[in-house]
Amino acid sequence: MSPEVTAKYPYVANAYSKELAAKCPAFAKQVNPDPRELEEDDYGPDPFGEEEEAAGCYGLKQRFEDRVLIMASDSCFMNCRHCTRKGLLRQAEVVRTDEELQTCMAYVQDHPLVRDVLISGGDPLVLPDEEVMRFVRSFSGLAQVDVVRLCTRAPCVNPARITRDLAALLGRSGKVWVNTQFNCAEELTPEAVEACTNLVRAGVPVSCQTVLLAGVNDSAERLLELFRALLRARVRPYYVFQCDPIAGISHFRVPLEKAQKIERECAERIGGLGLPRFVMDIPGALRKTPIGEM
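^ thats the sequence. predicted structure below, dont judge the formating
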């Protein structure tokens, strides 16, 4: 493990992630540092401007008029080597105090077009249940909010965290959705499927935002295996993202033409329920951009 790489992009992995990485080379590439992370590229650490505060509201980010993101944590169970916030973990503005949370709630109320609140990080589920529910209750209790999205990779990297008790708490508001990330079928272990089942049975819909990664899932065959495994677990394949324009992940990027070809091949071989949208997140754009339009 290169100390130069980990000095810049720390290595963090829990016991479950290490065990899965030992069994699955595709997952190991997402966990283990790679010297190529230090190669020079054209990208910076924060192309989406997440280090900027939204109207002075600490820990709240707004790029689209109908939704806001609340930074509830700056750490994760596992530091994904392809992470959008690769250079911001342990440094991000995080809502911790009741006063900061109340300020974020007031911001949402002052912006009536906001209907969707994303609770993210880091991973918010590194927090205890009561802390997670402090965020969920605060925003689900606002009449204008239709959806509270809990953005977590716990079902994949720490499935034991998704207990039946936590799932039941999340399901009570009737507004919580879980957005998670699985990148290859092997990640849907029996433990991961059980975690997703706990959420679904509690009335919490689960969506998957996959990242297209060279050497991990960059073929129609690999992605179709994943989509079918997700459907069996009653998880909606929601997005497949091109890697974000972040420094340190150039070796993961799949050429656009190849990604477009993969999308066409997937569309020809699986029904709409199992076919996510293939998109790019472009700084300054007002939506996620379908790769077919590029």
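Residues 220-232 form the longest helix (13 residues).
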